[in-house]
Input
Amino acid sequence: MALYAIGDLHLHYQSTLKSRRQMTERVWKNHEEKLRRNCEALLTPEDTLVLVGDHSWGRKLSECEEDLRFITDLPGRKILTRGNHDMFWDAGKTGELNRLFEGKLEFLQGGFARYGDYALVATKGACFEGPFYLDRRGRILGWDEENAEQARKLVTREAERLRAGLEEAKAAGCRKLLIFLHYPPTSILEEESVFTRLAEEYGAEQLVYAHIHGETRYGDSILGDFRGTRYSLVSGDYLKWQPLKLLD
Ligand SMILES: [Fe+2]
Ligand SMILES: [Fe+2]
Output
């Protein structure tokens, strides 16, 4: 039994592809097939795969059915967390999605799921992504204050959701914790954040995030060990569609 994670499948079996990167970069060519083959070689029916947001380009559930079927057909237990592009999934509809896909897929948002004696705590997260104003050498001179203010509000709300999930897991007697965020835990301006402080405060063993695409951006947030927690980026293109093993 092992736990794996990967994010950002950005499937589009029934919907329009909306990313230039996905249309032009080699890593995205037939990425669904690469992922399927890797999962079939790697995962057994006893394993669990956490899909860390941005599952589908579909805007409503009826445009995501084939994408979700593709995920259903991957081996093992599948837990989906929410990304910024998952328009089919309002936070308030998580219960309904779980009823609809019972026995096939688990949708996890703002609570926790059990994996052995671990609690997997997930929420979308948030971080400030600009726009930034750069000088000719690409150094940051400033940023859009209105967007920064909006991001601060989202960070506060998401941090509350994360704390609530961590508390729920603790109240249920779970001592071992893994945190899943779709957004990276820090912006490019930060060394730490409310999310890294929560990971430290609750003693989370790992914090897993996705969302970051493209070689030049993979180092935007924390990678590796930081204050007792291991940080991993699991966006599919970063992992070249090979799920990352988190736990045996
Ligand atoms: Fe993405
Ligand atoms: Fe994303």
Summary: The pocket of fe (ii) ion (ligand 2) is lined by residues 53-54, 83-85, 182, 211 (CB under 6 Å). The helical segments are 20-24, 31-42, 65-72, 94-100, 145-171, 194-201. The chain has a mean pLDDT of 96. DSSP finds six helices and 13 strands in the chain.
